[in-house]
Every structure is written in C-alpha cells, then in structure tokens.
Design goal:
The protein has helices spanning 3-8, 42-53, 85-93, 95-119, 137-153, 183-196, 309-324, 367-382, 390-393, 399-402, 404-423; strands spanning 31-38, 58-61, 77-78, 126-134, 158-160, 171-180, 200-202, 207-212, 217-221, 226-234, 252-262, 272-275, 281-288, 291-302, 331-339, 346-349, 357-361, 437-443, 446-452, 458-462, 473-475, 480-482, 489-490, 496-498. The protein is α+β, with helices and mostly antiparallel strands and 510 residues long. The strands form four sheets. Strands 3, 4, 5, 6, 11, 12, 13, 14 and 15 form a nine-stranded mixed β-sheet that branches. Strands 1, 2, 7, 8, 9, 10, 16 and 17 form an eight-stranded mixed β-sheet that branches. A four-stranded antiparallel β-sheet has the order 21-22-23-24, with no helix packed on it. The protein binds FE2/S2 (inorganic) cluster.
Length: 510
C-alpha cells in the first residue's frame, strides 16, 4: 500500500481492526442502579469489573461502542516510566509524593499482569523493557537528573549509552520488567466477564447532564432517557459534566498519531522506547494475527492547532523508514489525551461539593497504568475506604492556586485561539473543495466548515464550537472539525466525536 493510499482509508487502529464482536443495546428506557459508570475505555471497564466483582449493582454506558476512543487507539504500554515525571513531581510536591505516584503505577501493572496470568487472557502480553532516550547531550543531562530521582526514590533503572536498533542518540534510562499487550483483546475479556456477571452495558448512549438530589443522581442521556444512581463515575476522558470544577481551565487536550508498519518476522521485537524531546517519538512492537509490526507514535499537539495532520503521519512514516528500514504502512490512527496542570491525574470526587460524582482524567498519554490505577482507587472510594493515595490524586487538590502560571498559560492559549478563529479570513473557496476533501470557507459571509464526500455530496456546518464558542479547524487526516480551545471534535455532519461539547454543530445553509 502506498503511503498516500493510507490517507484515503478510514483511520483504524491495529487493535480495533481485529473486529472483536461487541454489540450492546442503546439505552431505550429509564434505568436505575447503585453505580453508573460513564465511559467504556480502560478506566470505565476496569472500574465496572472491580465493582461487579464485589457484587455491586453497576451500569456501564458509552457514547460510542466500548474502547472506540483513546483506549482502542493507544500504544498500550504498561510502564511506570512516564517521561521524566519523577524529577518533576519531586520538585513540585517532594519525594514522598513522587514515590506514591510510582507505587500507584506498579500497583496497576501488578493487577493487570496478575489478571492476565491467572485468567490466561489471550491478549498478546509481552514482558519487555522501557527506555527513554536522548538525541543530544542536553537531553541526556535531563535524563541523568531523572535517574538521580530514581535513585532517591529507590526506583530500579539504569543509565545506558548504547541504544538498541542502531538508533541515533547519546544514551537513555532503561527499566526492566515492563510489558505491553493488545488493549482491545485485554479489555474485551473484561467486557465478557461483565456480561457473565449481568452488568448492564449500553453503547451509543451519550450522557449529557447530571441532575442531583439529596439521595441520588440522575444521569441524563442524549436520547432523553435517564439512569438514577447513588454514585456515578465519569470516565469519559474530558468530563462530560463539570459541576463547577472548572476542568476546562485545568485540562489541556492533545492529539497524537500512530502508524503500524509490518516488519520481518525474524526481527527482534524487544523494547518500548520513547525519545526525550519536545515532540517525542514513541516506539513499540506488536505481533498480532501472526504479523509483526513496528508501531511509531508521536507528533502530539494541542487539538485543532496543527496545520496538517497528514504531515504528522508522514513524519512518523519517515521515522520508521529512516530508523528501522520499513516502508509499508498497514494502519494509521490517532488518539486524544488530556493533561492536568501538574502531570498527576485527577482521580476522586469531581469537586468537594460532589462526593458521589467521581472522576478520572488527565492521564497525560499514560492511560494504561493511570486508568487501571484510577479504577482501583475509585473502587476503594466507592466502598467507603480511604487510601494513602487520595490526597495526591484528588481533583480538588491545591494545584490550581500553586500552578497559577500554568493556568494562565493554558487559558491565554485558549483566548488566543478564540480570538484568532473569529478573525480568520479563509482563502479556501467552496469550488476548491474536491471529493473527500474539506476545509474552512467563507460562505454567505460566514465562516463555514465544508466537506464533500466521495460521491460529491456537500456538507456545510457552522464552525462555532457548541461548548464555549471557539472556532473549529478542519483536520485533513481525520476528516473532522476540531476545536483548538478544549479539544471537542465533530464529524463532517456536525455530530460530536469527543471532548466537552455535548451538542451537534448547527448546519450551515447552501
Ligand atoms: Fe471548548 Fe470548543 S471545546 S470551546
């Protein structure tokens, strides 16, 4: 397949290509339960799994089908090495906090490893090492600082000068005994267990609001139905309900890209690698259906703030070709992640005023371990237990005050995008848009999103984001309209794909 033909295909991850059959109904009636888990990615599915193991009454819902967003589109690395996070946490919160973060990740990894082993889950589990590596001496000095943090925290890790696969660079920090797997196979197994335990699961059921009363909460869905519950877990990536928690001021949405390139079966497939740079490349290997793949991810950017997503894919393909000598691309896809202000996820009560609404978000692209840990921590909270992790991860911790500079920076970025979008005069004309192309045009004097499908049918949408009114940009590789402010994304028909927006875009007249 030529690289250009890759872009003609719908994007589909290596994992979701396996077409694992899950067909759950859409909510079509009023429901009630003890705990409603909203979002069927790794956090939601694992939470439902742990709660149902305790015989608690659980409903799990998702706006798409399970795993269709970030969890089905991840690199699926299970490692406690999350960039240079430990030196960062030590500087901000001290050694004890950094050690707790590490222990949280190890606890999550042990849980998944144990489960895969005990239940013999067929999910291509592979033990391997992880390494962050430097391309120049300055980066290596920062990695050396991280190694020093490891030493203080008694985290096992070794500085090395030789890089595997002949990669260009000056050295890295390696940790042993990490693992990767096929996330859709793993989570599908948990979903099967949920079915056996009679957990009610609804797909294509978008939660749009929560109404609270003294004793219960009412989850309101787009279809007009409700689920009454005593507790709710919001595991939707970006929380669909804010509850005056001002998450839009303290979560930054990022989009990143992945390609899977087939490689010879006899090749070495050890290692999960990542470069330490402002725009890191993430590398791993996967063998599924008897084919070996090199996976290259990266080119992360704020949602809606990249000029060409196609160029991002091309950059990853070039990296694979230049470093591993592979040329073909079998799959390409992208994922959305959210970053908190202090690199530590928000896990716990949505706000101090909402103890029965629990949230987990801000995993900073490390959702396999953070999402699993979130499920473990929220299960403890729901069952009335306090843990030594609560204060570090609680969403209402004092970082908004402490990280005022970062809050200002994020929100200045949002303000800039909002202002820029309103001023932008597009040079693209309607007649310039060919079949299977889209863009932002001036139409009847208004900024308008246009897309023409394969058959020439034209779709026009108002580009004003239904969340808080920023102007959307066209994403040429995903064929979507993306919001540069808080990351909402819409199809060419204006339907919500993901992000905080809950309402469709208005149609624009022809
Ligand atoms: Fe907030 Fe678009 S996502 S304005």
């Amino acid at each position: 397949m030529s690289n250009e033909s890759v872009f003609e295909k719908e994007k589909l991850s290596l994992w979701l290509n396996d077409d694992i059959p899950h067909d759950f109904p859409t909510l079509g009636k009023e429901e009630s339960c003890g705990i409603c888990v909203v979002g069927a990615g790794i956090t939601g599915i694992t939470t439902a799994y742990l709660l149902s193991q305790l015989d608690l009454d659980v409903i799990l819902i998702d706006s798409h089908s399970p795993m269709r967003l970030t969890s089905g589109n991840t690199t699926a690395k299970f490692t406690f090495q999350h960039g240079l996070v430990y030196s960062k946490i030590i500087k901000k919160y001290g050694q004890e906090a950094a050690r707790l973060y590490y222990e949280a990740q190890v606890q999550a990894m042990n849980f998944v490893s144990g489960l895969v082993k005990d239940m013999d889950i067929p999910c291509d589990y592979k033990k391997t090492y992880a390494m962050i590596y430097a391309e120049n001496d300055k980066q290596f000095e920062e990695i050396r600082e991280e190694h020093e943090a490891y030493r203080k925290l008694e985290i096992p890790g070794e500085l090395v000068r030789d890089l595997p696969y002949g990669l260009t660079g000056v050295g890295g920090l390696m940790v042993e005994d990490q693992f990767d797997l096929h996330p859709v196979k793993y989570l599908s197994f948990l979903l099967e267990k949920l079915k056996e335990r009679k957990v009610r699961i609804y797909q294509d059921t978008r939660a749009v609001d929560i109404r609270e009363s003294d004793e219960s909460s009412l989850i309101v869905t787009e279809g007009g139905h409700t689920i009454r519950c005593t507790k709710a877990v919001i595991a939707t990536g970006y929380p669909f309900f804010d509850g005056n928690g001002f998450y839009f001021t303290r979560l930054a949405p990022y989009r990143s890209y992945l390609v899977a390139m087939p490689r010879p079966a006899e090749g070495n497939t050890d290692a999960m690698l990542i470069t330490h740079s402002s725009s890191p490349y993430s590398i791993r290997f996967a063998k599924t259906n008897d084919i070996e793949y090199l996976l290259v991810g990266g080119r992360g950017h704020k949602v809606g703030q990249e000029t060409s997503a196609k160029d991002s894919y091309q950059n990853l393909i070039d990296f694979g070709r230049n470093n591993f000598g592979v040329d073909d691309v079998a799959f390409r896809w992208s994922a959305q992640d959210y970053e908190s202000l202090d690199s530590i996820p928000y896990i716990g009560a949505l706000t101090s005023k909402h103890p029965d609404l629990l949230v987990a978000t801000g995993f900073r692209k490390w959702g396999m371990t953070n999402g699993t840990f979130a499920a473990q921590l929220l299960t403890q909270t729901i069952t009335g237990k306090t843990t030594r992790y609560d204060d570090l991860f609680k969403p209402s911790r004092g970082e908004v005050k402490d990280s005022l500079g970062k809050v200002m920076k994020e929100n200045l970025n949002v303000a800039k995008e909002m202002f820029k979008g309103k001023l932008l005069s597009s040079k693209t004309k309607l007649e310039d848009i060919g079949n299977d192309e889209g863009g932002i045009i001036r139409h009847h004097g208004k900024r308008t999103g246009a897309y023409r499908d394969m058959n020439g049918k034209l779709f026009l949408v108002d580009t004003t984001c239904t969340h808080m009114g920023c102007e959307l940009e066209y994403n040429n590789a995903e064929r979507s309209f993306d919001c540069p402010c808080h990351g909402s994304r819409f199809t060419h028909e204006g339907k919500v794909i993901e992000g905080p927006a809950l309402e469709e875009l208005k149609k624009a007249g022809e």
